[in-house]
Design goal:
46% helix, alpha/beta, 262 residues, single chain, Rossmann fold, eight-stranded mixed β-sheet, globular
Length: 262
């Protein structure tokens, strides 16, 4: 897909990966709707885009609320006359205390944002993209969702594994509606969420984790934005997961082959 002239909507665009993705999409020539539950963060992203000469508008939305998601899609259509690209990026982590001591309502909220929000956003964006003859959707998953796991927060890993399998299951949309759905699976990225994740561990675990992180070339949000752009541009990809690992070039994940009948 040629991004120039398209309309893109990015959730969780108020900071981190979402902001980097929104800024990069605008730089590529898209009109961008920056969505975040933190309205001030979305406004700051819009200000950065406009300061660089891009087109953007911001809107507050909670991706777990159907009425909010419908409204953000309608906002994109009303403001920029359609929707071609969706980056389902909004995500949260519970923070301390570590599971299983995390209060159930907190990890259920994480399930809602990280998985149900992706499903809802995708479902409600598809009709708008059909009006335009197709589109591209990128979901933010994680290496934690493709076999790496995340012992400090197994529910987080479960949400991201769900995003990977949800994405893979939507591969037929490319032939049915010219809508390609893929996901990006980052490793350790220097974002505010990384700080919150480390707070969920004990002092000893946190020290050990930070020691390992110091040995890694920390990923920056802009590197993940680059991966998002590559998934949008490559018309051959549908239902795929792109791994962005610390210290390695991005690489498509190869899912295990299904067993063949004897």
């Amino acid at each position: 897909m040629d991004i120039a002239g398209k309309v893109a909507l990015v959730t969780g665009a108020g900071s981190g990966i979402g902001r980097a993705s929104a800024v990069r999409l605008a730089r590529e020539g898209a009109s961008v709707v920056a969505v975040d539950v933190n309205e001030a963060g979305a406004r700051e992203t819009v200000a950065q885009i406009e300061a660089a000469g891009g087109r953007a508008a911001g809107v507050r939305a909670d991706v777990t609320r159907e009425e909010d998601v419908r409204a953000m899609v309608a906002f994109a259509e009303d403001t920029f006359s359609g929707l071609d690209i969706l980056h389902n990026n909004a995500g949260v982590i519970t923070g301390p205390p570590r599971w299983p001591d995390t209060e159930p309502e907190r990890w259920m909220r994480m399930l809602d944002v990280n998985l149900r929000g992706v499903i809802l956003g995708t479902q409600l964006a598809i009709p708008a993209m059909r009006k335009r003859g197709g589109g591209a959707i990128v979901n933010t998953a994680s290496l934690a969702g493709i076999g790496y796991g995340f012992p400090p927060n197994p529910v987080y890993a479960a949400t991201k594994g769900g995003v990977v399998l949800f994405t893979a299951s939507l591969a037929p949309l490319r032939d049915e509606a010219n809508i390609r759905v893929n996901c990006v699976c980052p490793g350790v990225v220097e974002t505010p969420m990384l700080t919150r994740a480390s707070e969920a561990t004990s002092d000893a675990e946190r020290d050990a984790t930070m020691e390992r992180l110091r040995a890694l070339p920390m990923l920056q949000p802009e590197e993940i934005a680059d991966a998002v752009i590559s998934l949008i541009r490559d018309d051959s990809l549908a239902g795929r997961a792109l791994m962005v690992r610390n210290g390695f070039a991005p690489e498509l994940y190869r899912a295990p082959e299904a067993p063949r009948p004897a």
